[in-house]
Amino acid sequence: MGATKHQNTIVVIEDIGSITKLLSIILRKAGYEVITFETGESACEWLRDNLPSLVLCDIMLPGMHGEEVLSYIRTLAHGNDLNVLAVTALANPGDRERLLRHGFTEHIAKPINPGTFISQIQEYIQP
């Protein structure tokens, strides 16, 4: 049995409450369902059996690091079909390239621009 597909649903993995709230408001205003997780472990547990339209993942998380979350997602039967965007304050030269090489679909630097965020992610949202 495959994963349960959640159309129009975006998973946000972020440990800072104010950022989670901002992303949730922007995404819900654009018409998306939002499921949030503060840790990579809790997100992975949910993602094991569920397939959202998109995952937005911080890198510097407590416990399981964002790159470990991505590595786990890619081991799932449905994990290679899932776009996972790194939304992170890691914006030093080479960070974007390193994260894309690791397998993230895209890199969006924090602080995000609320006015352009939806257009930045829309091309990666799976129907």
How is the secondary structure organized here?
Elements: E1 4-5, E2 9-13, H1 17-29, E3 33-37, H2 40-47, E4 50-51, E5 54-57, H3 66-75, E6 84-88, H4 95-102, E7 106-109, H5 117-122
Parallel strand pairs: 1-4, 2-3, 2-5, 5-6, 6-7
Helix pairs in contact: 2-3
Strand arrangement within the widest β-sheet reads 3-2-5-6-7
When the domains are counted, the total is 1
- Annotated CATH homologous superfamily: Response regulator
Content-based structural category:
alpha/beta
**Count, helices:** 5
Order of helices and strands: EEHEHEEHEHEH
Can you describe this structure in just a few lines?
This protein has helices at residues 17-29, 40-47, 66-75, 95-102, 117-122, and strands spanning 4-5, 9-13, 33-37, 50-51, 54-57, 84-88, 106-109. With 127 residues, it is α/β, with parallel strands linked by helices.
What are the defining features of this structure?
35% helix, 127 residues, 21% strand
Describe this protein's structure.
The chain is of the alpha/beta class. It has one domain (4-121): Rossmann fold, CATH 3.40.50.2300. Helix content is 35%, strand content 21%. It is built from 5 helices and 7 strands, in the order ββαβαββαβαβα. It has helices at 17-29, 40-47, 66-75, 95-102, 117-122; strands at residues 4-5, 9-13, 33-37, 50-51, 54-57, 84-88, 106-109. Helix 2 (40-47) runs parallel beside helix 3 (66-75). The longest helix has 13 residues, at 17-29.
